[in-house]
Please model this.
Amino acid sequence: MFKPVWKDTSLALRMTLMMTLLVVLAVVSVTLLAIQREQRTFRMDTEHQAQAMLSVLLATLTDHLYFMEVDALSHHLGELRDEEMILLARVYDSEGHVIADAQLPDLVPGFEVDPFGKQIMESDTVIFEWHTDKLVAGQAVLVGDQRLGAASLGLSTAPLEAKIVAMRNQGLVVA
Model:
């Protein structure tokens, strides 16, 4: 009743189809591995960049945070607003309340503790939180054994997305 399709095809055609299928699978596999490697490298590079930027930011803000000069903190964060790669920048007090925000220059500090600010304040290292569109990194400001507050930066992952789309399209063309 049903005849297998392979029975009526020539050996040359079957070999050609199998070789084509194997080549396409190999190209797709290599492309996927390259994308994974690129993502890993980008993540590490972005974390190092965020850590370096946080160090510079904390060095700039420490005195203002020590004296709780909120206007000066807001001014410094306002200068970051024009940076294309920086999506957010915040400063927290010693309890984790947001006291300055680059996106909200007229921020009135609230009573609610920011969960990320609290997490930063409880850590001795840089905290990284990955989102689909950004990396948020935060670090506490320590003077001696006293925690004055913390700062966080959000860096865009748009360059990674552009690379992945280009690699995927190139892989599809080759396949």
Remarks:
- The mean pLDDT is 86.
- The chain has four helices and five strands.
